[in-house]
Amino acid sequence: MKTPKCKSCNHHLEWKKVFTSLWFPQKTATCSQCMSHHEITTPLYISILTVVLTNQLALLINNFLSWSSIWMSIAVVIALIISLIILFSIFIPYFARCRLVD
Ligand SMILES: [Zn+2]
What we know:
This protein is mainly alpha-helical. The chain contains three helices and three strands; from the N terminus they run αββααβ. The protein has a three-stranded antiparallel sheet. It is elongated. The two termini are about 25 Å apart. It binds zinc ion (ZN).
């Protein structure tokens, strides 16, 4: 698994920079080699897969826990979805694509 390559010098962009620009779209990833800026995008299938997978996993985990109130189980599902999205986003930089911006 590798992070996207810089469009001007083919150097792999740092995971940390790709990750940051995924969470903060206004931030661009800078190549440490040639200092060119890149806009990071995620392929649509990765976004869909992440959403579907997190929802299914959260519901599955919630099934094993029995809560007396519906609100408690909704709160747990939301908390699980948030933590799973954070967990999955660790791997998203490896599937991300980049576009050179000036
Ligand atoms: Zn570069």
